[in-house]
Design brief:
Butyryl-CoA Dehydrogenase, subunit A, domain 3, globular, single chain, 3 domains, Butyryl-Coa Dehydrogenase, subunit A, domain 1, 4-stranded mixed beta sheet, about 15% strand, 4-stranded antiparallel beta sheet, Butyryl-CoA Dehydrogenase, subunit A, domain 2, alpha+beta
């Protein structure tokens, strides 16, 4: 089976690549990550206002299938140009989920325009156990207490991306009547933020502690637009998020390969390019193999999700683990092929290596989870 983009989709992808190349240069990335917040509101506003975050809506099929192949392929562009912002959580999870809610939910008439003036914080750690039963999220999670029309949230959420720069937090919560999506005012009484350092300076995070924080009915959605329980849309959005990470990993690996090939063809030793040495050729070939296998698996998995296959969740988990491992491996090979230069910050390979390390742990999913899920399915 071959997956390819239509002419219109290719033009869209090319436009996104060009836009991101001007949005965040290497110097911009270094400057933003070195700032106090690790976040640039002007960069975010340009990104959100141009509509490039709603890839799900751009690539949606006529029948409304969730996150088809074209969307995952376009997500590759965010791997080529890392943006210090919660792109994968907003574009991969929040916007696809809001598309399934009734118009006007949370007072948002046009979800893609709602976050232009402010970045939202999003936490999805609680959904790992929902989608993959038996998987324990890394955070303590939240406890919801219902009091009439109000819900009181208490608990901890670890390493919430850009919580220190956001005014609101979107988080799935489990209530007595099922799952819901809550919007928490991060400036409300009972909210405490503790900024933390992660391996990726491009994803500045904070621990969020909630102590009986009130969430009113206007900040709580319990059903999808069609009146169905929110469990299905939350599951689909979580899978979309994991697939977005897969697409981003493929794009990052692709640009690392391009940079490595350019370097080994230019760098000479003993009067010849080091790319002519067999050991270097093997490493480059391993990088190319990892990229193609990841792209094929991610595209096929996205196709399974768009079809609503019964084993889509298992396929997404397998794809996520494979792409995460390939991403780290390609980073390591790129650094090795650059020799001593590969370890320097001037070359910039550390940006992708740190991102790969972060993404591999972000959902807390392991090979043990895959073995348990596959065993249960069997």
């Amino acid at each position: 089976m071959q997956f390819s983009l239509s002419a219109d989709e290719q033009d869209l992808r090319s436009s996104l690549r060009g836009f991101l190349a001007t949005l965040v240069t290497a110097a911009d990335h270094e400057r933003i990550c070195a700032s106090e917040d690790g976040f640039d509101r002007d960069v975010w506003k340009r990104l959100a206002s141009q509509g490039w975050l709603d890839l799900h809506a751009m690539s949606a099929e006529a029948d409304g299938s969730a996150w088809p192949v074209a969307g995952v392929i376009m997500a590759e562009e965010y791997g080529r140009v890392p943006v210090p912002a919660p792109v994968e959580l907003v574009a991969g999870f929040l916007l696809p989920l809001l598309d399934r809610l009734a118009p006007g939910s949370f007072g948002l008439d046009h979800a893609d325009d709602a976050f232009v003036d402010g970045v939202p914080a999003v936490s999805v750690t609680s959904l790992a156990g929902l989608v993959y039963p038996g998987q324990e999220p890394p955070a303590a999670g939240l406890v919801a207490e219902e009091r009439g029309s109000l819900v009181l949230l208490s608990g901890e959420l670890a390493t919430v991306q850009f919580a220190g720069s956001a005014s609101s937090l979107f988080v799935p919560v489990e209530l007595s009547g099922g799952w819901a999506l809550a919007r928490v005012d991060l400036t409300a009484d009972g909210v405490q933020l503790e900024r933390v350092t992660t391996v990726d300076p491009g994803r500045r995070s904070a621990h969020v502690t909630l102590a009986a924080v009130e969430v009113g009915p206007e900040d709580l959605v319990r059903q999808a637009a069609d009146g169905s329980p929110l469990t299905g849309p939350l599951t689909d959005a979580f899978l979309s998020y994991l697939l977005f990470l897969d697409g981003k990993a493929v794009g990052a690996c692709e640009v690392l390969l391009e940079r490595t090939v350019a370097y080994v063809c230019d760098r000479e030793q003993f009067g010849v390019p080091i790319g002519s040495f067999q050991a270097v050729k093997h490493k480059v070939a391993d990088m190319a193999t990892a990229i193609e296998s990841s792209r094929s698996l991610a595209s096929y998995t996205a196709w399974q999700v768009s079809r609503g296959d019964t084993d889509a969740a298992e396929a997404v988990l397998a794809s996520r683990l494979h792409c995460a491992d390939a991403y780290r491996r390609v980073c390591e090979l790129a650094i090795q092929c650059h020799g001593g230069m590969g370890f320097t910050w001037e070359v910039g390979l550390h940006v992708w290596y740190r991102s790969a390390t972060y993404d591999a742990a972000v959902a807390g999913l392991t090979m043990a989870d895959l073995a348990r899920v596959l065993g249960g399915a069997a």
